[in-house]
Structures are given as structure tokens and as C-alpha cells.
Design a protein that fits this description.
It is a single chain. With 495 residues, the protein is an alpha/beta fold. The chain is 45% helix and 15% strand. It is globular and about 80 Å long. A hairpin with a 2-residue loop joins strand 11 and strand 12. The chain is built from 15 helices and 17 strands. Strands 4-3-9-10 form a four-stranded parallel β-sheet, with helices on both faces. Strands 5-6-7-8 form a four-stranded antiparallel β-sheet. Helix 4 crosses helix 6, helix 6 crosses helix 7 and helix 10 runs antiparallel to helix 13.
Length: 495
């Protein structure tokens, strides 16, 4: 089975055929850096990361670009907070640093580039000028708008007709536009004070003097700022090509953002902008989408600190990107159990493979057949629109075969176990991005010995009646990722 993807543009699951048989051009609409990243954002990141990894596994050279939107009224609204920075650029830098740390914490492959809007304003101006010259855009009081009535295919992504779209953009733009559905490519002047106050947090320290208006740039139409939609077209075409293979984004971006990207890009170039449009379903919690504006989110940093990258990745990958995903104590617990089962299976396979009981002459058909079946089912799942739920399930079935083999045999099938370990490493590690720790890893052994030493000191403190100090040692261990459990037979721990 070849890779098939569900294309929002056609509404069909289609065989994946890139423009170049060897290369894949992939663009992902990145984060507007006005708040800490939450698990809803991480869902998109991790699924795009696995798309990248699977395409590379299939032999493609993947050029993956993901932008940062660092020019936005929500960012301006954060300016002046002593913890964030005095102006729009400083606030954006603060949150970009946090996002990059979150990405590395999640073990994401690096994109080829992470372009920022502020670095591409000349490219944006050039693209807007092209649209004006071709008659698809018009200037009004220093702003420039795209004329949706001039692009005959407008609405083809979201399946809407122009006459049914009542309005888009800010209401105060309506008087300048020829059609209510026209959208801004360039906005005159800076951000209006009303817009800044609309997006201000309740705990913002307040204004000292004038309300910030954000960065502005010179243009043929006067001083101003780029519109939201034009930025992604300019950055995608700058760093990839005028026609790309895959454009990925959140489901909430189908309209207006991605619809407008298509219109302005194809109007400017006369070429199809993106062949396949893939949309990640939003993460829900308590029947609402997880959102910064709703305040119902768990930050990526907090999730990594409490659960670790492997559990977070398992949680996000336990549901295919195109299916509904819910964040709750129950779904998180399921992900934790699935990861711990997978890691225990991996460690069991490594330990048995490297033991003196592993024999060249042993041959367990069940184990070897399950390795082959796991690889086949993993591949079928990933080729079926990147179905990570099926892929993780295939690896967990292999865990069951490894456990049965070790439990039922005194002499182990070395070749079967080696193939199992390689399957975990290749498919679980290289493709799904999990980080396994085998029992034979030297650093893990040393870490375990050090924890045992600390626990022996803790036991001595408890025997001496120094319970407060014993509790402090337990808390310090848990702070660095060591879970301690007191039992009747003494303390046990898990890294």
C-alpha cells in the first residue's frame, strides 16, 4: 500500500504523489507567539513531526518549513509586561525562545527553517505589489485589500460561495472594502488602541504613557503592517517554491486563513499553491477546544515537567491527526500506561537479547512472525493517512510477543529479539520519535545506583525519626523525574 492522505481541498483520501518524485515540500502554519504554547499546539507539532519522519522513512528528501507569526495585535497587547518585554519584538522573542525549548523537549526534528514575519516584510510587500499590478488587489486609504470577486475559485477549500460570505476582517475595515468578504493584505499605520485593549490580559500591569501600536514598515502605500494571511504565502514561496506538496495546519484555519492563502498565492503565480491540504483536528477538553483565549489549557512546559516527552508524545499520537482528540485525566492515564508498557517491552527485549540465555540456534516462530506482522501493520497504518493510533498499536502487539517469548522460554531466540529491538528503535524511535532507554545502557545503570544510594540515606533518616528530611529527599528525587513509592518491603522507584 502506498501512502494515502485525506486532502481537504478535494474531500477525498488520495494517493500521495509529490510534484518531484524524490522531494517533498511541506509547510506548517506555526504559532502566533503571544502566549505560552499549550498541548493543542503540541498536537499539531508532533503530528507534523511524525509526517516528516515517515516521509523520510519512505525515502523522500523532506524540506519542512514552519513559521513564527511575530507581528500581531495580540503580541502588541502583551508589550509593557516586565516579564515579557517593552515592545512587540521583545515579547515575540520571549515566546519564541519558549517555543523552541518546548520543541526540543518534545524531541521534534528540526524544520529546515523557522521564518518570522518580521524578517520577510520586503517579500510580503513584493507579493502585494504583484497582486495590485495583476488587478487582484486594490489600495484604500493606505491599506490594500484582496478582491475576492476577481478570483473565480475563491471558496474551493472551505466549500463556500463568495455571495454567502457576509464579512471577514475587522468591522472598521468595511467602509474601505469593495466587498465585505475582501481581506487585508496590508494595513495602514499601526495597531489601533482599541485592538490593543481588546486583547489585553486582565492582569496586564497597565500602560505607562501611550498605548503601544506595534512595529510598522514603509511601503508604496505608506507606513503600515502586513495582513495576517499574506505572511504565510510569502514565507512558503520564499523558502520552498511557488507550488508545494503539503500544507498542514489546524482545522480552525481552513477558513479564512488557508482559503485566503490559496487565493492570493494562486492569483499571484498562476500555479496551484499546495497540492495536499491536511488539517489537524483541535484538541478538546471538557467539551471545548483547548485555547489560550479560553484559559482552559495545559502548557507544553507543564506537561513535559509532569509527564515527560514520551508520555506526552504517546498521548498526542494515540489519536490520528484527523480524528477527534480529548485531553482528560483518563486519556492521559491511558497514554501513560501505553508508554510504560511499550518501554517495559523494549527493555525486556534488550535485556533478553543481551543475556547469556540468548541463543543463535533458538527459533520462536511466534516472535518472528509477530515482528513481521508488526512492521506490516505499522506500515499499513502510517500509509493510511498517517494513522499513528494503528502504528502505536502494532508496536504494543509486538510487546506482547516479546513478553510471551521471555516468559515461556529458558533459551531465547537471539535473532527474533534482535529484530524486535531493531523494530522498536526504527519504527518507535526514528518514526514516532520515542526515546527508549534499555537496561544495558551504562548511564541508566549509574542513575539507578545513585537513586538506590539516595533511598538508603532516606531510609536511614526515617529510622532516625527525621521524617521531614526523608520527605524532602523524596520530593527532590521526584523533581528530577524519579517516582518513589513506599511499600511494606521498602521503597521502590521508577525513572
Amino acid at each position: 500500500m502506498t501512502l494515502h492522505v485525506t486532502n481537504t481541498l478535494t474531500g477525498e483520501k488520495e494517493p500521495f504523489e509529490p510534484n518531484d518524485p524524490d522531494d517533498v515540500l511541506l509547510y506548517y502554519c506555526g504559532l502566533t507567539v503571544s502566549d505560552p504554547a499549550h498541548l493543542g499546539h503540541a498536537r499539531g507539532w508532533v503530528h507534523v513531526d511524525v509526517m516528516h519522519r515517515w516521509l523520510a522513512h519512505l525515502g523522500y528528501d523532506v524540506r519542512h518549513v514552519e513559521n513564527f507569526t511575530d507581528v500581531n495585535e495580540k503580541i502588541v497587547a502583551r508589550a509593557g509586561d516586565p516579564e515579557l518585554g517593552a515592545d512587540e519584538a521583545a515579547v515575540a522573542e520571549h515566546y519564541i525562545a519558549d517555543v523552541l525549548a518546548d520543541m526540543r523537549g518534545l524531541n521534534l526534528k528540526r524544520a529546515e527553517v523557522y521564518p518570522r514575519v518580521s524578517e520577510h516584510v520586503p517579500k510580503i510587500v513584493d507579493l502585494v505589489e504583484t497582486l495590485v499590478e495583476k488587478g487582484y488587489a486594490y489600495e484604500a486609504d493606505g491599506s490594500v485589500y484582496f478582491d475576492v470577486t476577481r478570483f473565480e475559485e475563491y471558496g474551493k477549500l472551505s466549500n463556500q460561495r463568495v455571495e454567502d460570505i457576509e464579512e471577514q476582517g475587522d468591522p472598521d475595515e468595511l467602509g474601505e472594502k469593495r466587498h465585505p468578504a475582501d481581506f487585508a493584505l496590508w494595513k495602514a499605520d499601526g495597531v489601533a488602541p482599541d485592538a490593543v485593549h481588546e486583547h489585553r490580559k486582565a492582569d496586564h500591569p497597565g500602560d505607562d504613557g501611550e498605548t503601544p501600536s506595534g512595529q510598522t514598515w514603509d511601503s508604496p502605500w505608506g507606513e503600515g503592517r502586513p495582513g495576517w494571511h499574506i505572511e504565510c504565502s510569502a514565507m512558503a514561496m520564499t523558502h520552498l517554491d511557488s507550488s508545494i506538496d503539503i500544507h498542514v495546519g489546524g482545522q480552525d484555519l481552513v477558513f479564512p486563513h488557508h482559503e485566503n492563502e490559496i487565493a492570493q498565492s494562486e492569483a499571484a503565480t498562476g500555479q496551484q499553491f499546495a497540492k495536499y491540504w491536511l488539517h489537524v483536528r483541535l484538541l478538546e477538553t471538557k467539551a471545548e477546544k483547548m485555547s489560550s483565549s479560553l484559559g482552559n489549557f495545559t502548557t507544553v512546559g507543564d506537561a513535559l515537567e509532569s509527564e515527560g516527552a514520551n508520555v506526552v508524545r504517546m498521548f498526542l499520537l494515540s489519536t490520528a491527526y484527523h480524528n477527534e482528540a480529548v485531553y482528560s485525566d483518563e486519556t492521559l492515564a491511558e497514554a501513560r500506561e501505553r508508554w510504560e508498557r511499550l518501554e517495559r517491552g523494549y527493555r525486556t527485549a534488550v535485556k533478553a537479547c543481551d543475556s547469556v540465555d540468548a541463543r543463535t540456534t533458538a527459533d520462536d516462530r511466534d516472535l518472528r512472525n509477530t515482528v513481521d506482522r508488526a512492521r506490516r501493520e505499522f506500515t499499513e497504518g502510517m500509509n493510511d493517512d498517517f494513522n499513528t493510533r494503528e502504528a502505536t498499536t502494532a508496536l504494543l502487539e509486538l510487546v506482547g510477543a516479546v513478553n510471551r517469548h521471555v516468559d515461556d522460554h529458558d533459551e531465547y531466540d537471539y535473532r527474533g529479539l534482535r529484530e524486535a529491538v531493531e523494530t522498536f528503535d526504527e519504527l518507535g524511535g526514528d518514526v514516532l520519535g520515542f526515546q527508549f532507554r534499555g537496561e544495558t545502557d551504562g548511564s541508566a545503570e549509574v542513575a539507578g545506583e545513585l537513586v538506590e544510594l539516595v533511598l538508603s540515606v532516606r531510609a536511614a533518616e526515617r529510622e532516625a525519626g527525621n521524617y521531614e528530611r526523608a520527605d524532602e529527599l523524596r520530593d527532590e528525587l521526584e523533581a528530577i523525574g524519579v517516582t518513589v513509592e513506599d511499600t511494606d518491603d521498602g521503597a521502590t522507584f521508577r525513572l
